[in-house]
Amino acid sequence: MVRVGVPRLLTTTWAERDTIQARLHALAAASSALDLRLARVLAWLRVQDLAPLGYPGWLSFTREHVGWGEAWIRSLIRLVRSGLGQILRAASEGRISLTVAVTAPSTCAPEAQAQWLAAAEAGAQPARPRRPSGASSTVAPGEADSLAIWHARHRVRLLEGLPVTDREADNRMLAWWRTGQPEDLVARALAPAPPPRSAPGDSAPEWEFADPADVLVGRWRTPSDVEGAMALLAGVQAARRGRAIELGRLYERVVRGGLHRSWGFRDVESFCQATMGLSARSLQRHRELGRTLRRLPALAHARLSLQRVAVIGRVAVEHDVERWVAVAGRTPVAELERAVEQVEAGADPGALLEAYEQVMAATTQTVGLAAVQAPVPPRPTDRVHPDLPEAARWLLAIQLPPQRGFGRVKERDRFVCANPECRRRALRNHAHHLRFPRHLRRAGVDDTLENGACVCPSCHLRLIHAGHARVERGVVDGVGPALIWTFPGRVVTVGGA
Ligand SMILES: [Zn+2]
């Protein structure tokens, strides 16, 4: 459909514009209140054992159910546990942005809070301490250096067993190179990870003000068990989804119609910061969501979580969006992210969707594909610290211990955990025997690679050997070899395994 380019401003009446402004304000305030409510539920869940739900740890749980970064979750949990009543109230009423609120000193007497808040509302509290840009002290790496850095970042993630960002990987690489002890590095990467922290239950103080989230999702009640907390989580997520979609759409309408100018703002960012208390981070998120929904209206009607909408919005186009929606509704978020990364790296989306559709046709449950675990081709590197190319080469020259016997299963699987909801890549991952008949003595066990799967220590010990998950190799009609994962309440069939 071709639209003649009539500027939206001309087609929007003054009354409509006022309604849009009021609605944007209400939605923005509600989104902060809901984010804080979500953080309260997460603060409670953070200290529970999630293995009985079939999740090996906090990271995989939050990736499937929340979609926020770990650092942001930690900041918000700290805020809701802080008992900073005045600051929590201002944030949940949308008077200050959450990005500002999380920078409040965590222990703060009421008078100091009032003072801090007054400065924050006047815009004097910086949203986040800015990192020095360091633009003058970076270099643009050549092609060979760029490739070495890409591989070295991959190796940092393998050694750390964490999906750290490029920047974090670079910092660690430089720190290791400066201290220069490769043996320690490898020993630490192989040592068992510290057990997950456990702490007493929810100690977050009750809030002594009317929480705006109450009218949206009901009054706060401390969950009595994990199932109760999961129900609260689902309710908050459904409310957040509806509001984010509406906010994204209205925001996109403001930007495209230049409505902010008619309200006297030079640019849309200053309008949003002044009237909606939104941080640059959430502005960006809403703008992306708005654009995605304008491009692919079908996504707004799909019964998908926000994090899934955001992930498929990166690659779906008009003619294949329905197929992506179908896949997204049947794959774990971790799986979907990998599939989208493959397409971004040049994989043929049609072939990939077809492969998913084949597995989906063979089962009614959740699906995955082993093929999406293949490494994606290196991307050119941005400007980096001048020492980074040397640090990268140093790191790549370190010999990793060779895998022997059944341990070669890990090499074959590129050290990636086979659990489609986990996919943790770590040198310390284990080789798991898919069939290990109890009546056989160790010597009789099938040690061929076909009988093995690489799994992370959490999935291996806290899920499989604790009886919260089962994995077996099978052959699925129309699909061929598959790994079938059974978790409490769900089964994931991974084709091509
Ligand atoms: Zn795992």
- Cα-to-Cα separation, first versus last residue: 43 Å
Strand order of the largest sheet: 1-6-5-4
Shape: globular
Bound molecules: zinc ion
| Number of individual domains | 2
The biggest sheet, with number of strands, parallel, antiparallel or mixed sense and barrel status, is: 4 strands, mixed
Give the low-confidence spans. Answer: 1-10
Gyration radius (Cα, Å) is 25 Å
Helical percentage: 40-55%
Total number of strands? 6
Order of helices and strands: HHHHHHHHHHHHHHHHHHHHEHHEEHEEE
Counting H and I runs of at least 4 residues, what is the number of helices?
Answer: 23
Overall mean pLDDT:
88
Structural class: alpha+beta
How much strand? 5-15%
Protein architecture, described:
- With 497 residues, the chain is of the alpha+beta class.
- The chain has two domains: 8-121 and 209-295, no CATH class; 141-203 and 319-497, no CATH class.
- Helix content is 52%, strand content 7%.
- The chain has 23 helices and six strands.
- The chain has helices at residues 8-11, 14-45, 58-65, 70-82, 85-92, 98-101, 110-121, 143-160, 166-179, 182-190, 214-217, 226-257, 259-262, 268-276, 280-295, 298-301, 306-313, 321-328, 333-344, 349-362, 388-397, 408-412, 457-464; strands at residues 366-369, 430-433, 452-455, 470-476, 480-487, 490-495.
- A four-stranded mixed sheet has the order 1-6-5-4, with helices on one face.
- Helix 2 packs across helix 4.
- It is globular, with a radius of gyration of 25 Å.
- The two termini are 43 Å apart.
- The relative contact order is 0.13.
- It binds zinc ion.
- Zinc ion binds at residues 56, 417, 419, 422, 424, 455-456, 458-459.
